[in-house]
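Re: your question from the hallway

Yes, I did run it. Sequences:
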Amino acid sequence: MPPPNFGEFNRFPDKGEKAMKTLKSTFLISSAFAVAVTAGQGIAQTNPTIESIAAVNEANFTKAAANTAEESADKVSLLSTLETGHCEVDDTFAIAIHGGSVFWRGAIHAAKIPLMRQVLTDARSMLANGARAIDVVESAIASMENSGHFNAGKGAIANQAVGIELDASIMDGRQLQAGAVAAVSNLRNPIVAARMVMDKSDHVMMVGPNAEHFIEQNGGDTVDVSYFLHGGQNFSGVPLPDDMSILAADDNISSEQDDYLGIWAGVISGNFNHILVVEKTEGDKAQVIYAQGPHPAWGEGFYRRLEGSFVDGALQVMEPAEFGGYKLTYRLNPDDTFFLEATHPDFPDAQGTMTRLPSRLGPDNKSGTVGAVVRDRCGDLAAGTSTGGFDSKIPGRVGDSPIIGAGTYADNETAAISATGHGEFFMRHVVAYDITAAMKYRDLSLEQAATNLIKQDLLAKGLRGGVIAVDRDGSFVMTYNTSGMVRGVTTNALEPSVKVYK
Ligand code: ASP
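Structure:
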């Protein structure tokens, strides 16, 4: 049987048909509209009242053009402040950074921690010396992109077609200026590119090869595809069941897991995904998570967290009685693969080999979107986010990170936010903006607005992720509803500190 293809994981099988219907009705509406407009023009030629309206419109148009010129002048003056800007109105400053949500409790992030501490130390001295929030956001994220330790910039993971597609955005809270790039493949620093879109174009977002071209023309750094480490897909191309992110729900983690054995993935019964996470506990006993992709006989994908034990070189896991009480036997081979033996009486072919997944979840894994939020000594706010996108994304998919309001938002009136998590949900819930809206319209504090949304509303809907945020007082929040979030903070009063779990 052939391996699963994208089609099997299409959750919107009737989308093509729906799109066609929408297209048809749009066509009908626009045709009707065209007829009405044409009829209107006929009237305009003979009706003096309409002509006078046209004259007013002409005047308005001239005024609008003048406004645009004024806005451009504003923009230029803003840029010159940015370039020469120095900022020492008060002593307060704060920067929080993140290196992505942690969905798997066993994932080890050791290499990221010293790097993030360094980023915070550098940012701290920049801010103490009066650097602008927007500059510090850009520089902190660019350092994380260049490190190769995250799923952003150099370390970006490959999509399912083994291509690189990067997304990033940046926002300046002073005048709600913003810039973003999406699905770019050859830019060294997507965050710098996002800043260039903000500073050097009249637009907010540019995508694909034309964005690359624009950045290159404006002096941005391009790189060959070999620059990227191609961290590989998290699950070696094995698409996950939709609800895998639910694995995150475990808050009882206080530190890195020394006793984590690893994660193995493969296919059983020919082509059904099976994932095994082994967290060794005591002696021969192990904590095991196993996850199963969608299967015609077993239905939707699911996962179970169970006790296991090593007996005669095999890991044995007993399913609870309500799921049939079968014993799963994973034989550990000398080549570090596990072989799931067929023990289920109804499914004699439910067997297969699982190979250990590479570095992404090992000691030097490359997971993690990156983000930064800053309050500078002028009380100005800025935010930015950069990513290679969600694990195993299909080519062309764009997540929330480059979407202003979803993955990134900054408004001096409220807060600066950078999000990480399952982008599709963050877009639908307009997460970053929603936090600022709760502050603005419901008068909530940043802490209340962010934790209510992440820990209550989104969690209740099963949506996993987290945010970092700062407000004008320099208060910061780093909240998540996943197993962990790679995150760090420093302020004028607080030395850099980096954490992954609790
Ligand atoms: N939000 C990112 C995306 O959906 C992924 C992440 O933050 O882990 O592209």
